Amino acid sequence: MFGVNVMQLLWKKLAKEKTVRLKETLDVSGLLKGRTDVKGFGELEADLQAELTSGVAEVTGQLTLDVQMVCARCLGPVHERLAVPFREVFTEREDLLPEKEREDAHIVTEDAVDLKPFVEEAVWLALPNIPLCKEDCKGLCPVCGTNRNETDCACKQERIDPRLAGLADFFKDSD
Predict the structure, then answer these.
(1) pTM of the prediction?
(2) How far apart are CA 116 and CA 33, in angstroms?
């Protein structure tokens, strides 16, 4: 999905050097294609380090991405710089890991470990589900459509569900 960019961990090189740094700029246009809430984005900066200890490789670091989205309440622009922590564990043999870490580890069967799917997943999960231009965004008026962050409108905001309107009359009679 990243186009020509490839982020690979070479297992034999890591076994020889014990620590490998992976720093790349990746194109995420394929990953974010079709997301209507994402209006623009920059390149993904991946700054990762792999360390091999006793046959277990831990890849840690940070992924950084500038993204422009649409506010879920007022439809205004939202500019965010995502700083996504990254951690994945790889091993050739599962028995080298403590029992509680085995479920999250990935078994290496070839020399080149493609980190792209793991990076994509981390970015995808870090994108806000409900982006807001500010925490206290007032949104759009449901009656007239005015952006309530910019202007207050005089629309009546109380709306009663027609299915429950009969209950409102019931409580009026009991007073």
Answers:
(1) 0.77
(2) 16
Residue 133 resides in a domain: no
* Domain coverage including residue 62: 8-126
pLDDT in tens, 104-129: 788 888 889 999 899 999 999 999 99
* Number of CB atoms found within 10 A of residue 135's CB: 5
Note whether 59 and 93 are same-domain residues. Answer: yes
Strand boundaries in the chain, DSSP class E: 8-10, 19-26, 38-41, 44-53, 56-70, 77-91, 105-107, 112-114
Q: How far is CA 7 from the centre of its chain?
A: 19
Q: Which two tokens stand for residue 7?
A: 């982020």
pLDDT digit string, tens, across residues 7-44: 899 989 998 999 999 999 999 888 888 888 899 999 99
Helix (H, G, I), strand (E, B) or coil at 153: coil
52 and 96 in a single domain? The answer is yes
- Residue 2 covered by a domain: no
